Amino acid sequence: MSASVLASRLVVRARLRHLQVLVKVAELGSVKRAAEAIGLTQPSTTQALADLEQLLECTLFDRHARGMHPTPIALAVLPLARRMLDALNDCAEAVVAFSAEGRSLVRIAALSGAVTGILAKALPVFSQQHPDILLQIQEADIEQIGALMAGGGLDMVFCRQPPVATEGWRFEPLLDDEFVVIAAPHHPLAGRKRLTFKALRDEIWLTSPVASAPRRTLDQWSAAQGIEPRQRLISTRSMAIVWAALVHERCVCLVPLSIASQLLDAGQLVRLNIAVPYAFEPIGMMTPIDSSGLATQKLQAFLLSFEKAR
């Protein structure tokens, strides 16, 4: 059976309930628990799963005494099913927003640094001033943002300026950014003045993924100093994991200030007094040149004013 034939069959016969059952059985490992979570009877849930397997002509779960485990086909399909259900929820939110008198919607995608450095500070204030505007925010990496922009599902994007201008979109810088070295408040070097890279030669570094700007900067910096940094083998963009690792043992980490700002402001981490001799691009917002709605224009004007006043 070809993919086009299967797609036509799914359009005619598949239901959203099939996807819901697939996702819940995978999450909970049991038809009984999935039925309880969805609000169906167990026989109805079993039948829905059987119908989906018949439609796809494949087995989605291996049945074991200890529960049900997704087959390789199910593991490939699950992320797509989750995205479809998420899209359904987004659709419902948009319809409700536009159906309510006077309401409007702004769909936003943002890098982690933009979320912590800009949106977390500005959006609560904006939302309080404009309670009629629904702000729908997705935190995503640059590849995901590109796909969302191509699909026409965004009104605003918060990122660093693309190396090549994106057709139909305007970029406006909002927040200057820089690389900083962070550590736990109890780190022995916290509070020391005018540190150099050589003062950190014996420290253990947490690293970002290889392709990331912080990782490239750390590699360049250490190579220029002729030092091979000791590394803890945890490569992550997650600030929750970075915070936990820094608090757990004596480590340091190089990150953009925008990403660490909330934890620094809360006193949960500290910035070591060392200048990183490598610049980083500012974070800004991208908006469509010709088709911004009134709500998007209001948020755009607010953010320009908010960041200017900081």
UniProtKB/TrEMBL annotation:
The entry's keywords: DNA-binding, Transcription, Transcription regulation
Keyword Lipoprotein part of the UniProt annotation: no
Classification via Gene3D superfamilies: 3.40.190.290, Winged helix-like DNA-binding domain superfamily/Winged helix DNA-binding domain
Sequence ranges assigned to domain HTH lysR-type in this UniProt record: 16-71
Top-level taxon in the UniProt lineage: Bacteria
Cellular component, GO, one term: cytosol
InterPro entries: HTH-type_LysR_regulators, LysR_HTH_N, LysR_subst-bd, WH-like_DNA-bd_sf, WH_DNA-bd_sf
GO molecular function list: DNA binding; DNA-binding transcription factor activity
Pfam family, one: LysR_substrate
Keyword Calcium: no
PANTHER family: HTH-TYPE TRANSCRIPTIONAL REGULATOR YBHD, NITROGEN ASSIMILATION TRANSCRIPTIONAL ACTIVATOR-RELATED
Similarity field: Belongs to the LysR transcriptional regulatory family.
Name this polypeptide is given: LysR family transcriptional regulator
Taxonomic placement: Bacteria, Pseudomonadati, Pseudomonadota, Betaproteobacteria, Burkholderiales
